[in-house]
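Deliverable D2.4 — example input (structure tokens):
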């Protein structure tokens, strides 16, 4: 069965696209069949991380407009995973046909990773709705955490379980939020804390995921561990009615104390 995992954050620039491509590569190295999809059609850039010329090929945009079948917009990257890119030269606001368009891919892969747009909006909702679970990405600072919290509530409202949170671009300086603080504030477990490494940017210039050019680094090994945990773990149960009530009450407490 295909597990569909949304990589989401609330805030832009924290590392969703980076995590999507790197988890994909790590999963391929673990023998999994993986597809990644750019569901950020208002600011698409998955193709730009991977050196895919997505302005001149069939993309998800054509599929959404009913002008192509999704398998025609599916490309194999040299890292071994498949990609459905979005057109980097277009802005598409209407994701209406996405759920239906995705169907042929279910069963073709062990894992489908969705690179989700930032914010809490219709575009994000469309992506979350087709996902089995959500991975939150945050940097260890207050603005990013607040946005992640908003997104977590949004996901819970859509009845989507949170697999955990990845803390990214950590520099381990004293003013950063700790994993314990993030777990307590978000109410979900930290899957890993990925430290800042300059090669992440270099990997974009090369069009190949960081894990392929930085083997043996602490970051590569951690990404591999997170990928394994996500692929092997059972999708978290949906919230029971009691847990939903609890989450709702906690939400009020958080709001009142702000
Ligand atoms: N752990 C990291 N260390 C250093 N740079 C990183 C790391 N993770 C991501 N980046 C860089 O941060 C920038 C934003 O990452 P990106 O994945 O595009 O974020 P998002 O998709 O959330 O907007 C990119 O230039 C990327 O190379
Ligand atoms: Mg992105």
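Example output (designed residues):
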């Amino acid at each position: 069965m295909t597990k569909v995992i949304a990589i989401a954050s609330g805030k832009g620039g924290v590392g969703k696209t980076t995590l999507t491509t790197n988890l994909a590569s790590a999963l391929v190295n673990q023998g999994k069949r993986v597809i990644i999809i750019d569901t950020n059609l208002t600011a698409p850039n998955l193709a730009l991380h991977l050196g895919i010329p997505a302005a001149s090929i069939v993309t998800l945009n054509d599929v959404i407009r009913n002008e192509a079948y999704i398998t025609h917009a599916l490309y194999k990257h040299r890292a071994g995973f498949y990609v459905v890119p979005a057109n980097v030269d277009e802005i598409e606001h209407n994701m209406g046909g996405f759920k239906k368009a995705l169907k042929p891919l279910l069963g073709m892969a062990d894992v489908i990773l969705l690179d989700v747009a930032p914010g809490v909006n219709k575009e994000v909702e469309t992506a979350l709705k087709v996902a089995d679970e959500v991975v939150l990405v945050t940097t260890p600072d207050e603005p990013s955490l607040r946005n992640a919290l908003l997104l977590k509530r949004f996901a819970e409202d859509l009845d989507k379980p949170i697999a955990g949170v990845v803390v990214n671009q950590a520099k381990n300086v004293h003013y950063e939020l700790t994993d314990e603080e993030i777990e307590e504030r978000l109410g979900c477990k930290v899957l890993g804390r990925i430290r800042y490494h300059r090669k992440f940017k270099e990997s974009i210039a090369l069009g190949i995921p960081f894990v392929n050019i930085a083997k043996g680094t602490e970051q590569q090994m951690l990404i591999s561990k997170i990928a394994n945990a996500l692929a092997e773990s059972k999708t978290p149960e949906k919230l029971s009615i009691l847990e939903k009530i609890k989450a709702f009450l906690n939400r009020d407490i958080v709001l009142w104390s702000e």
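Residues 16-17, 40, 45, 115 surround magnesium ion (ligand 2) (CB under 6 Å).
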